[in-house]
Specification:
about 325 residues, alpha/beta, D-Maltodextrin-Binding Protein, domain 2, 2 domains, five-stranded mixed beta sheet, globular
Length: about 325
């Protein structure tokens, strides 16, 4: 009771469900009581999508937005609300570029996609941004392939039929395509090493951000420190604990089938930064991918150091030490 009375309040707009591993740490910290244990009374408000979470931050309806890095830049910073990253929730894109396994298709590599139909989840999605970066790295522009924007089920169907030479897929469609033998992996960006090789460093797909205003940061400092500590504890636990134990601990608050969830999280495990730190080098590679995906306003000037974590976050992470206590 005393801890509850002393807790500082923080409203957080979350742009994704716990079924998405990138957003799971925030939902888990609430369900496990880790925010409360760190002295911050967090109210999670589920936004319809990452763009809506960024809008809530801009409008002042939330002090923190859990959103994509693209929306942190394009949805907030480019619209007059500079932000700072508090926690990085994913260091790789949750996608892979796959080739059709149909005999008529079967491109040998990215260079072989020239002139071919290539599917993606939709304009502005992580899949679109990553595909643009991969094509650019292999000296292919967006007009050098025939881009097709489709939903996941349609991408899977057309890969199986061979009417798409390749596509960028996310889960659950990626797993289904591979299990059905409809596709084979060309580039698996769920793996940190492959992400670094293909994109030049980490790609922070989902991040927690807050307004960069110094006065506002000072006002929220106690709550933000507690928020960061809680999430670092959860992400370290997710990254280092047997996934069966993780799934059973989360049940029944967040999962219905622990075995199924453990299997699904296995592929995502390496993507959680255990310390939640968005490094300057990682932000540089992330911004390079975002900047190349679609045009930015010519007046937008943003650098890793201006987007990176404020000092209060660095101090909060350091206070936990190299092995943060479990949630």
């Amino acid at each position: 009771m005393i801890a509850a009375l002393l807790a500082v309040a923080l409203t957080v707009s979350v742009g994704g469900l716990p079924e998405d591993p990138a957003y799971l740490p925030v939902h888990a910290a609430a369900a496990l009581g880790t925010f409360d244990a760190e002295g911050v009374a967090v109210t999670l408000r589920r936004a319809r999508h990452p763009a809506a979470a960024a809008d809530a931050l801009r409008a002042g309806d939330a002090a923190v937005a859990v959103t994509t890095a693209d929306q942190a830049v394009r949805g907030a910073w480019a619209r007059g609300t500079p932000v700072r990253v508090l926690v990085a929730h994913r260091s790789t894109p949750g996608v892979a570029l796959v080739a059709s396994a149909a005999p008529a298709a079967r491109p040998a590599g990215i260079e072989a996609l020239r002139g071919q139909p290539v599917g993606m989840p939709g304009p502005g999605t992580t899949g679109h941004l990553v595909l643009a970066a991969l094509l650019r790295a292999h000296r292919l522009g967006p007009t050098d392939v025939r881009l097709v924007s489709l939903g996941g089920a349609a991408l899977l169907t057309r890969l199986a039929a061979g009417t798409l030479a390749a596509a960028v897929l996310e889960e659950p469609w990626l797993g289904r395509a591979l299990a059905a033998g409809a596709a084979r992996v060309l580039v698996d960006l769920r793996a940190p090493a492959e992400t670094a090789r293909q994109l030049g460093g980490p790609f922070y797909e989902v991040v927690s951000v807050t307004r960069a205003d110094p006065a506002r940061l000072a006002e929220l400092a106690p709550a933000l420190r507690g928020y960061v500590r809680a999430l670092v504890r959860v992400q370290y636990w997710l990254a280092t604990t047997a996934l069966e134990a993780v799934a059973h601990r989360l049940a029944p608050a967040l999962v219905e089938d622990p075995a199924r969830v453990a299997a699904r999280l296995e592929a995502a495990r390496a993507a959680w930064p255990p310390d939640g730190h968005a490094t300057e080098a990682g932000l540089a590679s992330t911004l390079a991918v975002l900047r190349g995906g679609s045009p930015w306003p010519v007046t937008l000037a943003i650098e890793p150091r201006t987007l990176g974590e404020p000092d209060l976050v660095t101090e909060a992470r350091a206070a936990l030490g190299p092995a943060p206590p479990p949630p």
